[in-house]
Amino acid sequence: MESSTGKDFKIGECQGQKVVDGEVMPLVLLPPEPAKADTESLVAALKKNREWFDQMIIKNSAVLLRGFDGKNAEDFNEIVEACGWDDIRYIGPAPRTHIYKRVWTANEGPLSEFIYYHHEMVLFKENPKKVILFCEVPPPEGGETPFVPSFRVTERMLEEFPEEVEEMEKKGLMYTFTAPSANNTSSMRGRGWQDAFGTPDPAEAERRVKAMGMDVEWLPDGGLKTIIRPRSLTRVFEGRKGRRMWYNTVVGMHGKEISSATMIDGTEIPDHVVKRCGEILDEESIQFKWEKGDVLFFDNMALLHGRRPSLPPRKVLVATCK
Ligand SMILES: [Fe+2]
User: Fold this and answer.
1) Spacing, Cα 110 to ligand 1 middle (Å)
2) Backbone region of residue 272 per phi and psi (left: phi > 0; alpha: psi in -120 to 50; beta: other values)
3) Distance between CA atoms of residues 27 and 58, nearest Å
4) How many CB atoms sit inside 10 A of residue 61's CB?
5) Rounded distance from Cα 118 to ligand 1 centre (Å)
6) What CA–CA distances, in Å, run from 222 to 48, 180, 193, 267, 271?
């Protein structure tokens, strides 16, 4: 079931693939022949087909490179650099460790926890256009990185809750998020404010938060509460067929211990709407099983992604690009 793209890749298939609005997600690209599975050949193929490859990511929202023999962060970094996109530094609550050049660990929070579907850095003014993941050690069980075509969530929410959706859209949203006083790796959102904002200096952290267009409140326990407003419920990005993306993190932040999501005037978002949205996200999700050496490219404007609970060991690395 493989056909040649006429380029330097063969098109493959993977378990869990779906066809969404006429496009297969993810598009699976394989080496054109076994002798070209090495990283050097892959890097050459990516450099040669940069424009085409970029178009495939926009068109299919997710592209999975499979069957290549990238082994580690160094190989992954070369693959990322071959694509020619600029790096964007990760800002946010997830505990992550820098590994090599543009490569970081993905969220190091406990493997037993589900990481909720999100657009990467959705609350920040500048978000990555591309999120690239590399599987160094596939999990023995679980640990998938499911992803969701964002426009489908908007469509289904509009079908079920047209009035609520329009009210949230019209008013706009407000979030709060509290970064603790220090790192706490026992929580997947346990990134202390020093790490989250890249400085040990409280005044500088405050300046950085404000520079991102957010408000700040220091808590008695030394935590930093960030107030984020206004934020939209959905967004339409150029070149994405006019699709209205569910570009918010209401489900992830609503009614949590360290975060909240409300309408901008303080109106609560009804629990049953948030709960149903969570179910829709799950129903629309695309699941595939990680294989060693997989490189997965997401159009972060078009897809939400998450992480299923996993048995150890699991090692997935990440790079984010402008
Ligand atoms: Fe993420």
Assistant:
1) 14
2) alpha
3) 11
4) 29
5) 6
6) 51, 7, 9, 28, 30
Q: Measure the CA–CA gap between 37 and 45, rounded to whole angstroms.
A: 11
List every span in the chain annotated with CATH 3.60.130.10: 3-146+285-321, 151-282
Centroid of ligand 1 to alpha carbon of 6 (angstroms): 33
Determine the topology of domain 3-146+285-321 in CATH.
Answer: Double-stranded beta-helix (3.60.130)
Q: What is the pTM of this model?
A: 0.91
Can you give the length of the chain in residues? 322
Q: Which residue spans within the chain are E strands per DSSP? A: 3-4, 10-12, 18-20, 23-25, 27-30, 62-65, 98-100, 103-105, 115-118, 130-137, 147-149, 173-179, 215-218, 224-231, 235-236, 244-245, 259-263, 295-299, 303-307, 315-321
176: left (phi over 0), alpha (psi -120 to 50) or beta: beta
Distance CA 126, CA 239 (A): 18
State pLDDT tens for residues 140-188: 999 999 999 999 999 999 999 999 999 999 999 999 999 888 876 666 5
Residues in contact with 29: Cβ distance below 8 Å, sequence separation at least 6, in sequence order: 5, 9, 10, 11, 12, 56, 63, 64, 65, 66
- Contact between 298 and 60 under an 8 Å Cβ cutoff? The reply is no
Distance from Cα 26 to the centre of ligand 1, integer Å: 17
Is 62 in contact with 166 (CB distance < 8 Å)?
no
Domain 151-282: top CATH class:
alpha beta
CA of 147 to the centre of ligand 1 (A): 10
Cα–Cα distance for residue pair 168/174, rounded to 1 Å: 10
Please write the tens of the pLDDT for every residue from 71-94. 999 999 999 999 999 999 877 667
Contacts of 270 (CB under 8 A, 6+ apart): 164
Q: How far is the CA of 132 from the centre of ligand 1 (A)?
A: 10
